[in-house]
């Protein structure tokens, strides 16, 4: 950020600034930056749906994962969160080690800031999984059993009946959803810092703001929007995820439905809020 006045509206003390701003170098406009975010989001979302299918996962991992009725989602979310934070930390470290930038920030600060970026894999995963589950249940009801076969299977445990069903995206969707819940809790640090900064300085009152302040107002409003709307959903989603991992199969299915509903509600409250947050930040920062 080349304009020192912008720092008056940035909620954190650190910044990524060049040591020697050159007049002959033109930074990409905000529309190009946000467009890149959008394209990357869509590509990652589509690839995640393809690779998240149970059979594709099984082939890609040489049959190590992707088994029917797998419960790997109860711990796979840890891997997803680790990969997200690791990628953010790697990018932050590369920026820090790149010559030509002031070293006024720490790697962990930029890592947490990047966590507030919008993600779409979990948005695609839940509806795909829910639709596939409905089709699987419907096909299971239509299946014709030999006389006495269904009763025999039920007498020897409902699990044997369920083993015939293929919930192709369930493990992917649940692990992505739980990972997103955790990442949203981490995002609360950035959003909370922004709201506290703006509230202390009266930046939520438009009459107190100049031209740059009006640009920053979208970022402040998005952070407040996220904080107010997301708190309850994070609590409900977290509880549903925990219950789904410890309860019996039938109750876990109901928890899966609740998680889908929470995920749909999170779309305007979480994903849209983070997008607006970044739109406001990019507009304020100008030359990044």
TrEMBL record:
The chain crosses the membrane at residues 32-52, 73-95, 177-199, 219-246, 258-278. Keywords: Membrane, Transmembrane, Transmembrane helix. This is Uncharacterized protein.
